[in-house]
Here is the input.
Amino acid sequence: MQWLENDVPPQVLFEIQSPGNRPAEMQSKWEFYDRYGVEEYYLYDPEENTLTGWQRRGGRLVEIERMDGWVSPLLGIRFDMSGDELQIFGSDGQRFLSYLEVTAQREEEQRARERAQNEAKEAILQLDIEQRARQQAQKRADEATAQRDAEQRARQQAQKQAEEATAQRDEEQRARQQAQKQAEEAVGKAERLAARLRALGIEPES
Here is the structure.
């Protein structure tokens, strides 16, 4: 669909050959890519572990003589055919991972995220437990403080009542003493009056 992309053809094309691909079909594909301006074309056969590459030179796709160690001029990636299967390295020297490796890596990352999420949930739960424990401890401390304050007020009230009772007893004692004194003074006064009456020849009881 080059007409939707300013008539710019695919620059680099990779194709994986399957057992069902016939030679005539692959030749037809190559001619199509050659005609429509593909700059680099790479065909990998995983069954045979063979890699064939073509690079556009002089307006035509020309086969690359040696693919092992070849570096794509447009992508900067390097092909390594020294092992049992094709290895591709990026411009930073890091090997591109296979589908299985990428899948395993993603699964491990997913497991790591799930572990991190579980740990975060456990940490939050632990924080909640500790928070509730601190609140409960604070509540008990507040209750203990309130109980001590109530006991202190009760002691103070009892002390006040005891002081008031003591003051009442002292007042009653003073009143009794005053009454006793007044009674004694009245008796003494009566005796003196009786003595004067007798001195005058008057019997007080007559």
